[in-house]
Structures are given as C-alpha cells and as structure tokens.
C-alpha cells in the first residue's frame, strides 16, 4: 500500500501526463486490463479517462482496473483515474 506522501508525489508526477486509455460504453474488459498491465510495466504511472458514455461509475471502473491490473489506485479526479504499479524491468520512479 502507498502512504499519503507517496500518493502525493505520484499525483505530482502524473499531473503532466495525458490519459493513454479510455473506458467507454463497453466498460472494463479483459483485453483492456491486459493492455493496462503492459503499459504499467513500461511506464509505471498512467492515466485512464472514463468517457461520458460509460455505463459504470468512475469509482467502480477505478476499482476494477486497479484490482485487475494489480496496480495501486493513486487518484480519481473528475473522469480521470491515475494508476501506479512498480515495474519489474523498467523501474524509473523512486518513491519518497
């Protein structure tokens, strides 16, 4: 689990990132979770945006994605979800 200080640090790191995934009408599926796992392995910190036509609540989407991908949920702000998972091979982010 991340501490408050670590989450704050990750939020600051994520501020300038653009969302690289979008959750729409189809909601969360296996294929999306697989792609998010791969992106997290490369980048460690990603943003996912929840589109307005998504039927699920954004907090439920965030929960499903973080559980499915085995990632830490850093933040849900507006329709944007920030996820973090320490990379095994490409570790770039050093947490405080």
Give the gist of this structure:
The chain has 96 residues and is α+β, with helices and mostly antiparallel strands. 39% of the residues lie in helices and 21% in strands.
Molecular structure report:
The protein has helices at 4-14, 30-43, 58-69; strands at residues 21-23, 45-50, 72-77, 80-84. The chain is an alpha+beta fold and 96 residues long. The model has no long low-confidence stretch (mean pLDDT 94).
Q: Which word captures the global form?
A: globular
Distinct helical segment count = 3
Radius of gyration computed on alpha carbons:
13 Å
Residues in helix, %: 25-40%
% residues in beta strands: 15-25%
Alpha-beta classification: alpha+beta
Largest beta sheet: what is the strand line-up?
1-2-4-3
Please mark out the parts with pLDDT under 50 across 5 or more consecutive residues, or reply none.
none
Care to count the β-strands?
4
**Average pLDDT, to the nearest integer?**
94
Largest sheet: 4 strands, mixed
- SSE arrangement, N to C: HEHEHEE
Question: In whole angstroms, how far apart are the ends?
Answer: 13 Å
């Amino acid at each position: 689990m991340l501490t408050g200080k670590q989450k704050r640090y990750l939020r600051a790191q994520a501020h300038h990132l653009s969302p690289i995934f979008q959750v729409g009408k189809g909601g969360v599926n296996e294929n999306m979770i697989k792609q998010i796992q791969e992106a997290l392995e490369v980048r460690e910190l990603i943003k996912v945006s929840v589109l307005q036509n998504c039927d699920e609540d954004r907090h439920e989407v965030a929960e499903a994605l973080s559980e499915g991908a085995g990632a830490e949920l850093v933040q849900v702000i507006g329709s944007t979800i920030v996820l973090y998972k320490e990379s095994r091979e490409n570790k770039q982010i050093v947490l405080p």
